[in-house]
């Protein structure tokens, strides 16, 4: 207690998770926070390669699905916690593409996705049609994991160079007062436990799960940043209470496609009730809002709160009321520099 008061606020373990249905722009928030707070480790939790994060390398865009999106911060070790499913083919391809060999590690206990899991995911009418899964094999692989028939990362020779005990490494870093970022994937609304079952993914997606995925106990988490999109989106099937018509989203100039499946994302308006519930279950300590430039295009690229219009400020004020916690990060465009960071003012 006494010690924690003396500690610099940046010496901490922070979880970053999605507050709506995924694709809230967590990757951008992770990248910004990493460059500001200089973590020694960025470790991901979440389901597996069903997650997608788009990165631009030169002229080409790539969907990164296994490597933590914090890879853009070059000083941190990158890790994949034991709760996450690993597809060794996808993993190796991304490690080569992004050149992260030597600083990326996989927990030996991660469950493995086999080709056969992908075939079962895509071949299942229930998963591929009714639920609208990503077809990446995650559901069947998690099911085999629960049945205790699946392989683990330590059983795969191609992964031998990457194996570590992520829980041990992350907890040691926390003991040494280093900064650690735990990166969530997916979003609150598709949590197996709290989301719109059965239209959900194959695991919980809340902050507690991200901590558990990395072997970090709840008492060791200092901050939970929940990322909300000003206009939430959903891919795949399932209820979406604030969904708008395609015509309306076109009028607003919003069109998005999934990173993994390239399916068109459904677009909705701000859902204050869901934001409140999501913040509660995630144990939110502060929130990030992305896409404020869609609320008012005049805010595009703003880096200072004072540059925001009344319309945007009113939106943030309402979001804070709904969430019940301060909005400390406001993303105003796709570039990493296009962000307002109010965390120092907490
Ligand atoms: P699965 O996780 O591939 O089994 O897909 C189950 C549901 O979760 C489908 O509606 C997917 O579109 C959705 N889903 C899974 N991962 C993500 C994600 O990272 N972002 C957004 N939706 C996702
Ligand atoms: Mg995504």
Automatic annotation (TrEMBL):
Please give the PROSITE patterns that the UniProt record associates with this protein. ADENYLOSUCCIN_SYN_1
Gene3D superfamilies associated with the record: Adenylosuccinate Synthetase, subunit A, domain 1, Adenylosuccinate Synthetase, subunit A, domain 2, Adenylosuccinate Synthetase, subunit A, domain 3
Cellular localisation: Cytoplasm
Residues reported in the UniProt entry to bind IMP: 23-26, 50-53, 134, 148, 186, 201, 263
Pfam families in UniProt: Adenylsucc_synt (PF00709)
Region (Disordered) residue ranges read 124-143
Which UniProt keywords are listed?
Cytoplasm, GTP-binding, Ligase, Magnesium, Metal-binding, Nucleotide-binding, Purine biosynthesis
Annotated residues that bind GTP are located at: 22-28, 52-54, 265, 291-293, 331-333
As cofactor, the record names: Mg(2+)
Which Enzyme Commission numbers does its entry carry? 6.3.4.4
What does this protein's record comment on cofactor binding?
Answer: Binds 1 Mg(2+) ion per subunit.
Kindly identify the residues recorded as the active site: 23, 53
Which pathway does this polypeptide act in? Purine metabolism; AMP biosynthesis via de novo pathway; AMP from IMP: step 1/2
Entry coiled-coil feature ranges: none
Q: Where does Mg(2+) bind?
A: 23, 52
Report which reactions are catalysed by this protein.
IMP + L-aspartate + GTP = N(6)-(1,2-dicarboxyethyl)-AMP + GDP + phosphate + 2 H(+)
- Which amino acid positions bind substrate, per UniProt? 259-265
Q: Spell out the subunit comment.
A: Homodimer.
Q: Which PANTHER family match?
A: ADENYLOSUCCINATE SYNTHETASE
Record function comment: Plays an important role in the de novo pathway of purine nucleotide biosynthesis. Catalyzes the first committed step in the biosynthesis of AMP from IMP.
The entry's family comment says: Belongs to the adenylosuccinate synthetase family.
Protein name listed in UniProt: Adenylosuccinate synthetase
What organism does the record attribute this protein to? Answer: Methanoculleus caldifontis
**Gene transcribed to yield this protein:** purA
């Amino acid at each position: 207690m006494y010690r924690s008061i003396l500690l610099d606020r940046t010496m901490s373990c922070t979880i970053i998770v999605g507050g709506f249905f995924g694709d809230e722009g967590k990757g951008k928030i992770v990248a910004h926070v990493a460059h500001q707070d200089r973590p020694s480790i960025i470790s991901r939790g979440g389901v597996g390669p069903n997650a997608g994060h788009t990165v631009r390398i030169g002229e080409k865009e790539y969907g990164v699905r296994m490597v933590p999106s914090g890879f853009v911060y070059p000083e941190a070790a990158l890790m994949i916690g034991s709760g996450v499913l690993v597809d060794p083919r996808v993993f190796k391809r991304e490690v080569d593409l992004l050149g992260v060999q030597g600083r990326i590690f996989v927990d030996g206990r991660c469950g493995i996705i086999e080709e056969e899991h992908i075939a079962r995911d895509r071949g299942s009418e229930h998963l591929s049609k009714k639920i609208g899964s990503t077809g990446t094999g995650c559901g069947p692989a998690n099911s085999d994991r629960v049945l205790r028939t699946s392989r683990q990362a330590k059983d795969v020779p191609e992964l031998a160079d990457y194996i570590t005990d992520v829980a041990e490494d992350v907890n040691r870093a926390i003991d040494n007062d280093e900064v650690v970022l735990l990166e969530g994937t997916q979003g609150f609304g598709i949590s197996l436990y709290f989301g719109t079952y059965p239209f959900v993914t194959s695991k919980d997606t809340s902050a507690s799960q991200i901590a558990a995925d990395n072997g970090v106990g709840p008492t060791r988490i200092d901050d939970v940043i929940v990322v909300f999109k000003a206009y939430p989106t959903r891919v795949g099937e399932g209820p979406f209470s604030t969904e708008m018509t395609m015509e309306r989203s076109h009028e607003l100039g919003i069109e998005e496609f999934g990173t993994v499946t390239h399916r068109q994302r459904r677009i909705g308006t701000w859902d204050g009730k869901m934001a409140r519930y999501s913040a509660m279950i995630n144990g939110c300590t502060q929130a990030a809002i992305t896409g404020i430039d869609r609320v008012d295009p005049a805010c595009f690229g703003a880096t200072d709160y004072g540059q925001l219009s009344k319309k945007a400020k009113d939106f943030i004020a309402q979001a804070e009321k709904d969430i019940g916690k301060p909005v400390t990060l406001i993303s105003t465009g796709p570039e990493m520099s296009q962000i307002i960071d109010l965390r120092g003012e907490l």
